[in-house]
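User: Can you fold this complex?
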Amino acid sequence: MQVDLSLYAGKGNIGYAAVMMRAIFSIILILLLLVSPALAHSGSMTGGFVGGLAHPAFGPDHVAAMVAVGLWGAFLGAPAIYTLPVVFPLVMAFGGVVGIVGLPLPGVEVGIAASAAVLGLMVALAAKPPLWITAVIVGAFAIFHGHAHGAELPPGADALAYSAGFVIATGALHLAGIGFGLLARWPAGRVAVRAAGGAIAFAGLMFLGRLA
Amino acid sequence: MTAFIGGLLHPLLVSAHVMAVLALALLLGQQAPGRRRQALFVYVAAVIAGLGAIALAVVPVLAGEALLMLALLCGGLVALARPVPELLGWVLAGGTGAALALDSPPAALSLSEANVTLVGTAVGAALLLAVLAESAARLRRNWQRIGARILGSWIAASAVLVLALRLVR
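Assistant: Here's the predicted assembly.
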């Protein structure tokens, strides 16, 4: 079978990167648009570790934002690559406490959807603000994610297993983002990571549009 | 023998206990060997004291919540990855040991069975921390240390959520 390589000829990594970028952008976009953000933070959850583990995974807006945190961390390199996954769950827990206590936080779903849009945009634009600003941006959005989870945390004996499950799931999503974000070490990978950020930002805008 | 095994496995089977001991172990793993051993000694002494109190029919109050609070503190300190003052290390180790012991009343039918269970719990709790702390101390590569910090933050996050849930609802 003959494969037409003319697309790549003479363009080096950039031609390949452009194709890769388009493919990744399309795949992520299709996956994210196939699911509804309304699934993310509504209804009751079953308790236990598996319930907690599954909760973030079935919220596409949450998934998009968590992956974006990992992507951005990997894109920025050390120390952001490990600071952001440390900051996020700690601040998220603070937001969770606010949700458990029952303090109202306006615009939770908007904040979650906006987190995907903003964090994705940061990756797409290859933004490199100082670490503390990055941590503040990520931490601010973590409060919305935490509030949504905290308000839905089921009472009872399984609460610890449930919360451990969803914190681990959140961390795993960060790691997935970091894993993909490490491709940014190579020129083609850098384009691919930025494309993924763009796709997440676009999906975030779609989530916001559906909430309007 | 069954009572001893039951007591031995008890700290491994209660998720809050595992989480608190793991957080303390990660914290001790970040400290110098001398301080680690001192804290381990304080922890074992506190476990024995706490189980002794259980044997003397002391009814613990909020031991589970105290354990979660200590897991939160230890996890947060692991995430910060800063050297811990000696006294604070002792307080955290002693507090965790005592809270774990007080949160482990045996459900035995006879007094002798209950005492054997408590001995098993003491051995299990001591072994669990010793093994985990020594393992944590061997996390010397950069990525391993980062992993420990991330794990510490996860433990702190889980602990604060459950603590809030228990105290509010």
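Helices of chain B lie at 2-13, 15-29, 33-55, 63-80, 86-102, 111-137, 142-168. The radius of gyration of chain B is 16 Å.
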